[in-house]
């Protein structure tokens, strides 16, 4: 069950010049530019190929992008060289951030990346985010309510860059689902942890105070928190 393959074939995440990636940027950047008005140090968590990292830099922030994928980070660094960017790209695990306490004014976690993490793991991610945020820092989270979205996925064929979802099956406790992607080149499976809005709200309350929640489209949210 390989997320790396998913990101390799999906231009939505691996090609900042693609229409799919640009659409994602256009959806979020108007809100982000309003939220991140005061200049500061930004951690772009699960930064991927760095499109949003470069956007934050253009807004005047000092930016660090962190991801665990060598493939995505290598592309991000190539884009940075092309753009003459000063964004620092770092390989690391969101569950154990390689940064000092209170070292960022903002931590931004976009792209529904929470599906990578089980409840225990996401609890550790949120704990680490709180640790590296300055006392009055802001945490910006973008995610989809997967419990609301899943029935739609089960009723439709999803096509992305030559692949389609052959089938979807859930574990008996409905804590995750597995999507089987197929193309003429082959088949692979990806596991998605099933995070709903209620569960995200409950977990985030342990570490943060919610300041704002924006439903940017149906079942997709951009939320702003402060440290407790």
Automatic annotation (TrEMBL):
Pfam families: Methyltransf_25
Domain Methyltransferase intervals: 42-137
UniProt-recorded Gene Ontology molecular function terms: methyltransferase activity
CDD domains found in the cross-reference section: AdoMet_MTases
Source organism, top-level taxon: Archaea
Protein's name according to its UniProt entry: Methyltransferase domain-containing protein
């Amino acid at each position: 069950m390989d997320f790396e393959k998913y990101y390799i074939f999906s231009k939505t995440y691996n090609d900042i010049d693609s229409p799919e990636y640009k659409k994602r940027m256009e959806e979020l950047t108007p809100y982000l530019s309003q939220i991140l008005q005061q200049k500061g140090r930004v951690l772009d968590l699960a930064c991927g190929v760095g499109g949003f990292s470069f956007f934050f830099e253009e807004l005047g922030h000092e930016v660090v992008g962190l991801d665990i994928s060598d493939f995505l980070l290598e592309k991000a660094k190539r884009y940075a060289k092309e753009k003459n960017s000063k964004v620092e790209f770092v390989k690391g695990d969101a569950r154990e951030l390689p940064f000092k306490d209170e070292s960022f004014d903002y931590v931004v976690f976009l792209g529904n990346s929470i599906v990578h993490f089980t409840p225990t793991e996401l609890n550790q991610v949120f704990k680490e985010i709180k640790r590296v945020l300055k006392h009055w820092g802001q945490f910006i989270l973008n995610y989809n309510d997967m419990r609301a979205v899943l029935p739609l996925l089960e009723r439709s064929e999803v096509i992305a860059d030559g692949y389609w979802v052959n089938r979807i099956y859930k574990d008996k406790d409905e804590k995750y689902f597995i999507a089987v992607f197929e193309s003429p080149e082959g088949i692979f499976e990806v596991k998605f942890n099933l995070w709903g809005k209620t569960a995200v709200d409950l977990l985030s309350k342990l570490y943060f105070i919610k300041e704002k929640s924006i439903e940017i489209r149906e079942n997709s949210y951009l939320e702003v928190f402060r440290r407790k």
